[in-house]
Amino acid sequence: MRRSTLSRRRFVLGSLGLAGVVLAACGGGDDDTSTPGTSGTTATATTGGGNQAGATAAGNQPTATDTAGASSTAPTQPALENTPTNVQPVDLSPEQLQQFRPNELGQVPVLEYHQFGSPPEQFVRTPDQFRSDLQWLYDHNFVVVKLRDFLDDAIDIPAGKRPVILTFDDSHVEQFRLTPLANGQLALDPNCAIGILETFFAAHPDFGRGGVFAILPHQLFNWPNAQDQNEHGTIKVNFLLDNGYELSNHSYDHVSLAELSTDEIIYQLCAWNDWVHSIRPDAQLDSITLPYGMYPIGENGPGDDTLFRGCVYEGREYSWRCALQIGANPATPPIANTYDPYAVARIQAFDEELYKWFDVFESDPGILYVSDGNPNTVTIPNDLHPWLVDTLDESKVGSRRLVRY
Ligand SMILES: [Zn+2]
Q1: Residue 184 lies in a domain
Q2: Which of 12, 93, 141, 198 has a CA positioned 20 to 30 A from the CA of residue 3?
């Protein structure tokens, strides 16, 4: 998989002319694991533009200024990686362990959104429902994290916080719509998913930042009938990558991998990567979001993920780190002996399914991953939820210190 450096991304960003887009740019590139910048404006801002986009590029490093959200912070303070508060992590006291109840063997909800609009259906969430979902998550101590941090087992959020990953399939126009202003600039629709997210992130800087977009070349935020959006596709891809969002391979033509030959599957996956890299050569493409939830039927039968782990297309090597399924429960964390990166479960975001799990999280919080706030330790309660008993793979603790309480 081709990956390039941060400096390359900055160069690409700087040369793409995002100045015409009036968007919130709240800091936090996809390498930024710090507390999200607090200097962003609202999604409906009508001033700025180019400077904000430039500030986003500069915001990829978690600097002291980012965290403080003000330029008055001494610029000589060194940037600290993986420390959201820029404070050296310390072990939790016995009282804090009881207060925060960290459980870093717990499960991580990966919520799955499709369309936004009205009326609500299984694959349609209204904008107000989405806002209320975010508010519920925020009110219940969830913090939005990147899929990449989950895969790395490097979730870095404060003690007592619970990670959640947001995913968005099929690049519907309601997920990301830009509207032209009289002055030629583009405004972000405050009722599209990105508009709602940007507004919420700006108002709640301790909520994290992120979202995984399984985008499609032939309906890149213009489906079902928004041809006026066609010319904005490249701008949108760049905005996502520059603002802490991630992209996921959903196949070139949105086809069920179970119905294709091996060569066709390789084409569908690799041509998608090539397409994204033609827009952004530096894009890190970690995941496959299985179209229709279907795995290839390979030599090993249904469910074969061999090609995801590595394949060759036109002489080049490709691989992906994980596959996202369609349903139907929170995801097992990488440190568990039951973890399979090519079978990461999601929760479909419609009333029946979502509220069922929200109720479980409220009534049975022991199933959830809860951070200890310290990247140097893995903290697990002795009284584990029944789902989690005997699931720790101690070899994955690595150089971190295992804390039981
Ligand atoms: Zn799809």
Answers
A1: yes
A2: 198
Total tally of structural domains belonging to the chain: 1
Give a yes or no: residue 10 inside a domain. no
Ligand 1: distance of its center to the CA of 260 in Å? 16
Q: How far is the CA of 254 from the centre of ligand 1 (A)?
A: 6
Cα(309) to centroid(ligand 1), Å: 21
Residue 189 falls inside a structural domain: yes
292 C-alpha to center of ligand 1: Å?
6
CATH number at residue 296: 3.20.20.370
User: 31 CA to middle of ligand 1, Å?
Assistant: 26
For 185-235, the pLDDT digits (tens) are 999 999 999 999 999 999 999 999 999 999 999 999 999 989 999 999 999
For the stretch 120-175, pLDDT in tens is 888 999 999 999 999 999 999 999 999 999 999 999 999 999 999 999 999 999 99
Residue 98 Cα to ligand 1 middle (Å): 42
Rounded to the nearest angstrom, the distance between the alpha carbon of 355 and the centre of ligand 1 is: 22
How far away, in angstroms, is 345 Cα from ligand 1 center? 15
User: In terms of Cα–Cα distance, which of 209, 212, 191 is closest to 201?
Assistant: 209
Distance from the alpha carbon of residue 210 to the mean position of ligand 1, in angstroms = 19
Residue 360 identity: V
Residue-wise burial string across 290-316, b where 16 or more C-beta atoms lie within 10 A, e elsewhere: bbebbbbbbeeeeebbebbeebeeeee
Distance CA(362)–CA(371), nearest Å, equals: 17
Domain that includes residue 145, residue range: 95-404
**334 phi, psi to nearest 5 deg:** -60, -25
Encoded tokens for 254:
């949105």
Q: Give a yes or no: residue 247 inside a domain.
A: yes
Separation of alpha carbons 250 and 246, rounded Å: 13
